[in-house]
Every structure is written in C-alpha cells, then in structure tokens.
Amino acid sequence: MTRTLITLGLIGFAAANSGPAYAYSLNGYSWDTCPTEVTFYVNPDNLPSSAGSDAEVVAAFAWAVDEWNSAGANISIVSGGQTTSGYSTDGLNVFSADTGYGATSLMVSDENITSAGTAIQECDIQIYDQYEFGLSDVPWVSDGSPASDELDLRSDFLAEIGYCLGLDFVSTTGGAMSDPLVLGDTHSVSSDDANGLIALYGPACD
Description:
Elements: E1 2-6, E2 30-31, E3 36-43, H1 54-69, E4 75-82, E5 93-98, E6 107-116, E7 119-128, E8 140-141, E9 151-152, H2 153-165, E10 181-182, H3 191-201
Parallel strand pairs: 1-10, 2-7, 3-4, 3-5, 5-7, 8-9
Antiparallel strand pairs: 1-6, 6-7
Helix pairs in contact: 1-2
C-alpha cells in the first residue's frame, strides 16, 4: 500500500450496495500484545530543508502520536524520539526519509509490515524527499500550517501511523486515513478513524 498525492483536486464517486456502510477500512493486520503498546521512532535525515529542523520533525511526529492516543482505543502508542535506524527489518518501527522518489510520480511515502500471520511484528515507513525522476523536492512542512503549495508532514505521519496500527486508507476526506494527501490540506483523527482503531483493539481501559 502506498500514499499518493493529487494536486489538481479530487474526483467524486458514488457506490451503492445492500449491506451496511462503514467509513473506516482495515488492512488485515494488528499488533498481538496485551496490553498493546507500540513504540515508533523517527529518523529525520534526508528530508528537504522545507521540513524544518530535526527537532521540528520529531515534534511533528510526536503530535501525530498524541492524536492517535486520544482516539479512545486500548492501545498505547509511544514516540521513541529520534534514531539513526532506517527502512530495514531490525526490530524497530522507524519512520525515515529516502533521498529519492517512489515508484510513481505521485507517491510520497511507502510502508513495509513484517508480520506473523496477521500479527504485526514490525512496521517501517519510508518518506520520499523527491518526486519521480528527482525533478523537485517534495515540499514537506512540519508546523501543521502548510501553504497551498506545501504538504503537511504531520498529516502524513498521522496516516502512516494509522496504517502501522492496522487501518487502511480511505477515500473520505479530512480524517487521519484520508488518501490522497492534497497540497495545503491538514488531517486529524476523526470519529471514523477512532471507531476503526477501537474495532481492532477494543475501547481504552478506564
């Protein structure tokens, strides 16, 4: 599964079926620990200068972690801070940047889940710093206030953490798992996102 970018707007569509409609989607994986606590790390190396300082990137990541921890699910997400590890199977869940580009011109990040059956053992995220063929840097910003020609790194962190927790991307707009990520947009955890996480892990303990 990959994250994509659309710069020219979204095309609406409608679908109908006889069953109930749900505004969240599961990707088939979840963490198999109880109580569930998952630690993620971030490696800010190789992001373009527009993303800000290492401290600003780590702070953007911590913001996304806090958003998911407020969803009311029985899972605790921990921000382990900065690491030098990268996109590799090493026992750490790492968000890192790649000095290159994705398989398509619109791909801005990619995921790798290591699992035993459906139980997640490790999840690594690779964020790209360039569009296809290296024609230009992806205009990442970390402060949560992207201009109309910038991409919100907080929102990408938010969606990729959600994917690493077992949620899948959806076509509805505004929520954490909304895909694609559009220039100038910001996302946050919606009630649908929270319901999806609670469907996986149950409600938070009192």
